[in-house]
Amino acid sequence: MPTPFLVSIPKKSIYRPILDALIDGKFNLVLSNDILSEYVEIIERKANAVVANNIAEMLLNLNNLHKVEVYFEWKLINQDPDDNKYSDAAIVGAADFIVSNDQHFKILKSIDFPKVNVIGIEEFQSLILKK
To answer: Are residues 13 and 5 in contact, defined by beta-carbon separation less than 8 angstroms?
Structure first.
């Protein structure tokens, strides 16, 4: 499933307020090189390399971007090990939560250490709209 950031990019997306709030600095985004690379790869497939690079550049220039280097892999998500890049970045970046509707992230609710909270995209958008 696409990440909330990716589904918030299209101007007509019902989740566009998420991207607008990110640009307005209403929340911080934790991002690792692996996550950014995945975003670029997906955007290139959906649009093209120019659009993907422009969006990556925009993200990298945000004052509310918290870019992290992941030196330890916790391997908390077994069903889709590629999703671990998100939980690892959240841990390193001390994120309040991961925003995802992906079922693979549900396992994180049962893990006490390290604690990684997960909320759905609708709940996150509600939080953003209240600010």
So the answer is: no
Q: How many CB atoms lie within 10 A of CB 42?
A: 15
- Measured CA distances, 76 to 2, 29, 82 (Å): 20, 21, 11
Model pTM above 0.90: yes
Residue whose pair of structure tokens reads 């992941």 in the numeric block: 70
* 112 close to 6: Cβ distance less than 8 angstroms: no
SS3 of residue 65 by DSSP: strand
Per-residue pLDDT reduced to its tens digit, 116-127: 999 999 999 999
Euclidean distance between the first and final Cα of the chain, in Å?
Answer: 27
Distance from C-alpha of 43 to C-alpha of 56, rounded to nearest angstrom? 10
pLDDT at position 43 is: 96
The CA distance from 70 to 73, in Å, is 7
Radius of gyration of the chain, Cα coordinates, nearest whole angstrom: 14
Rounded Cα distance between 62 and 68, Å, is: 14
Length, in residues, of the chain: 131
